[in-house]
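USER: Please consider what follows.
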Amino acid sequence: MNGDQITIKVNGKEISGVKGDTILEVASRNGIDIPHLCYHPKISKTGACRLCMVKVNGTMIKASCTEPATDGMDVVSEDKEMTEIRKGVLEMLLSEGDHNCLNCDWSGDCELQGYCNKYDVELRNSDFPKNVRQKDFVSSKALKRDENKCILCGRCVKACSEIQVMNVWDFTGRGSHARLTSDVEAKIGESTCVACGTCVQLCPTGALSFQQVLGRGQSWDLKKESSICIYCGVGCKIDFYTNKEGQLVKAMGHNDGPNEGHLCVKGRFGFDFVQGDKRITSPLIKKDGKFEEATWDEALDLVAKKFTEIRNTKGPDAIMAFSSAKCTNEENYLHQKFMRSVVGTNNVDHCARL
């Protein structure tokens, strides 16, 4: 066996891992799900929620997201004792907030809700003083915040600082008065937030969510289809979600693309034009001073005719081409090749140079 390889036992099953990995990481890579909320593979380890507690070597209770796995370790993640511990953790997380699934557009995607259902823990509203918990549904056109759903897991804080490197989110207060805050105690719309949405994508409870989804369909009503972002040449992969009416309501970064799940503000929110009432859906040709709809054949024949006339009368350098970052690399290559080989000019530029 490689010196860096280790073997541990989880719930009686032998699995292999790499020295330095945590128990949770080894288990996850071997298809074993250990419940967790604060842990996420894209950010550094926190060890805050304690939902991932496991029994090590028969006696010790450890947080599997921070405990290094060692060769020969015997781990139990599911038995009567661990189930009771996990229920207690969930009860504690629920005790300081309002978790009304009926009025939450994150219902169905909420990881806390999923674990409560799994361990038969009742989701309910608490008697926690409501003046301590804040809501911000209007200051930002992109995000909204409901601290009543926040469990202080820290995912959003680390997503903002470690992935987007903006350091907008942080915690303030101590004990039962601890809460999430944006920089300089500002509302989201007044903060330095760039609306990348990474914090929302990593939030496990819907404490942070998207404005567009509000009232436009529950998660189980949304249909997901993967595509490529249209805004630049990086080629970020996106999961687009449409509701029952066929409207695009949400975009989430896909982990298999070059973006590895991350999106900028354009990729995250720049899809509303698709269902905009001012969108042009067919070619327009100006006739007698007014634009009229035409077929693609008509439009392309007209452009070809005009290009030919200009080239024949004023020379090929009287024509220039302006390319677009919204096109694929292949389309941009064909564009410049057409200008150089067919039209006969090197007058080619690209919007990214601006």
Q: What stands out?
A: The chain has five domains: 5-78, 99-110+117-211, 217-276, 280-314, 316-354. The longest helix spans residues 296-314. The chain has eight helices and 17 strands.
